[in-house]
Amino acid sequence: MSKNGTGLNSADAAAEAIIQWGESQSIETCFDRADRIKPCPIGASGACCRVCNMGPCRLVGARAEEEAVGVCGATLPSVAARGLVRMIAAGTAAHSDHARDMVLTLLAVAEGEAKDFAIKDVAKLHKVAGILDIEVADRPVNDVAREVALAFLDDYGRQKGALHYLARAPQKTRERWERWGVAPRNIDREIAEALHRTSVGVDHDADHLLTHGLRTALADGWGGCMISTDISDILFGTPTPVRAEASFGIFRQDEVNIVVHGHEPTLAEMIVEAASEPGLVDYARSKGAAGINLTGACCTANEVLMRHGIPTAGGFTNQELAIMTGLVEAMTVDVQCIMPALTEISKRFHTRVITTSEKAKITGAEHVQYDERKAKDVARQIVRMACDNFPNRGAAGSPSPATSPLIGGFSHEYIEYMQGGRFRGSFRPLNDAIISGRIRGVVGLVGCDNPRVPAMGLHRYLAMELIKNDVLVVSTGCGAAACGTAGYLTPEMALESAGPGLSEVCEVIGIPPILHLGACVDNSRILTILTAMAAEGGLSDEIAGMPGVGIAPEWMSEKAIAIGCYFAASGVPVIFGGGSPVGASREVTKIMTETWLERFGGAVHFEPDPERMLEISLDYIDRAREGLKLKKYEPGRFEPDRVLVDMAARRDLGA
User: Judging by beta carbons within 10 Å of its beta carbon (0-12, 13-18, 19+), is residue 72 exposed, middle or buried?
Assistant: First the structure.
């Protein structure tokens, strides 16, 4: 029995079946390791300092928080704050290094060095150029792309000024940042300064440390994440709704199954193209396969799902289980959230684990070095390697027939379009639905899935409870995968499970009550949507005060902490599941829950109880509605508003 108290390792029945089969075969997974390896209670609460060789210092046993000090005299609040800031810096570095590679790819495309790529969304390029004050009229597309790329590179090294994309935020939000000194100057500087401040003998004021943590996090949200999302749209196309499937039944018995896993979309895009080339399909047939079946896992899956409908095996905790089906010829991985255990578990099966990034090698894996200048050749090599492995497939494994349909591809641009058409697109219908009480509020249900709880279970519980309460849910990353494998990302969910107001809005527009917005870097889409809602009017004129909340119920990555903190600094209350990494310090907890709320309109809470998470979220939403003097939410009772016009009627108007 799982020691998380429920008897389940995963809330997903298909995943649980594979896990149980694996236990019968003595195959160890992350779920077994989570049961065996207990978290250090001192480090988990932020009471351990290890930034120098006089320690590690365990700040426990004192009768009062003020009495707990390290060898150097560092207090518990400063130690807890330093630990959190280092997590923010690491998460920001991960997202923003990913974004830097995207910028360099865009530059290589513009300069003709990456000939396998092209600018697929010129309108998005011109939109971004306009934000950056770059002239586009009568200029070749690649000239504009080159100037955009150079402007973004400037965001990594500029010594004076501020990030370009801060200008996208509402004016009042920017004024808060300036007042409290958290407007980031450049991405690399904030990360480097965070590490400097948190090294031995530098910054020891908890509030001062955490303020810089927010500056660093904002460099992630309004820098790295937003840059990466926009360049992916420019190069590969801005997503629009697309049908796909999720869970382990996506693997086909008679075809070569390839899984793209990680976070970077560039090589995955090339594998999408290569896997459908007639020559490679014929090569697969020469090995005895009926064809090539491309699938994904984690956020690389979300990238290719959003644009091509490529099916996904799910999020973080499903990666080992995909191999355990016995049907995967090759799993190609790049960076972030990749378990090194994949190579060990692959020894029990025939799967080839292939690393592709110069930044990330795994002992026991094969390595094929990715180069954007030879991207298609690298993709073809990987596809051939998978085909060569098809004859080695054995009978061992736990294949699953389970699949769930889903609709993904809800970009900022499409959400705007679906509310009014090409020429009348706006966020007014969404704002009106909130004002009238049809929609109570909006929740971003995001973040990782975690083997220390019934994996995906908290995402699924909260998703269902929120939509029952007329809360529109937007989701990214493994949170979106958790909802997708459960079958929650379909329009039918609105009729079956959503509250009466949300159901009406979803039925008229033709959308699910839970919108899949993409990979974890695409949380930046939520920022731009909130900004557009503020600009539309009728609600708050800044992000703070909106009836919206962020929840990461099963987080595990430092990236999640960076995301949560940039939302808090932008004005959104955020709830993390599980114990608090700063829980040992009452002072730090108070700064993050009360001081940040007063200064920025956002806060960060840690709460292990999912029912309490729901309660806190709805309380924040209802208090925001009260602050905006909106009608008190009552299920099924709405203020009269404008007539909702469906997409068919808008098309009749020529939209």
Answer: middle
Q: Is the peptide bond before 56 cis (omega within 30 degrees of 0)?
A: yes
The upper half-sphere exposure of residue 509, i.e. CA atoms within 13 Å in the direction of its Cβ, equals: 27
Q: pLDDT tens digit string along 350-394?
A: 999 999 999 999 999 999 999 999 999 999 999 999 999 999 998
Q: How many Å separate Cα 229 from the centre of its chain?
A: 11
At 491-543, the pLDDT tens digits run: 998 788 999 999 999 998 888 999 999 999 999 999 999 999 999 999 999 99
Phi first, then psi, for residue 200 (nearest 5°) are -60, 130
Report which of 268, 246, 224 is spatially closest to residue 478, judged by C-alpha positions: 246
Query: Encoding tokens for residue 389?
Result: 């492995």
What is the dotted CATH code of the domain comprising 76-236?
A: 1.20.1270.30
Report pLDDT for 394.
Answer: 86
Q: Which CATH topology does 248-392 take?
A: Rossmann fold (3.40.50)
Q: Output the six-digit token pair for 317.
A: 């905790």
Question: Token pair of 483, please?
Answer: 């909802």
How far is it, in rounded angstroms, from Cα 274 to Cα 103?
A: 23
Half-sphere exposure at residue 346, Cβ-oriented, CA atoms within 13 angstroms: 23
End-to-end CA distance of the chain: 57
> 6: how many CB neighbours lie within 10 A of its CB?
12
Here the tokens at position 164 are 């370009």
Whole-number Å distance between alpha carbons of 293 and 328: 10
- 269 and 490 in contact (C-beta within 8 Å)? no
0.85 surpassed by pTM: yes
| Domain covering 409-652, topology | Rossmann fold (3.40.50)
A 10 A CB-CB count for 169 gives 25
- DSSP letter assigned to residue 631: P
Q: Burial code of 430-464, b = ≥16 C-beta within 10 A, e = fewer?
A: bbbbbbbbbbbbbbbbbbbbbbbbbbbbbbbbbbb
Residue 485: which residues within 8 A CB-CB, separation 6 or more?
A: 12, 14, 15, 246, 247, 312, 314, 318, 404, 456
Which residues does residue 432 pair with via DSSP β-bridges, in sequence order? Answer: none
> Is the fold of 76-236 the same as that of 248-392?
no
Q: What ranges do the domains of the chain cover?
A: 76-236, 248-392, 409-652
Look at phi and psi of residue 357 and say left if phi exceeds 0, alpha if psi is from -120 to 50, else beta.
beta
Q: Which of 481, 646, 558 is closest to 213 using CA atoms?
A: 558
What one-letter code names the amino acid at 404?
Answer: S
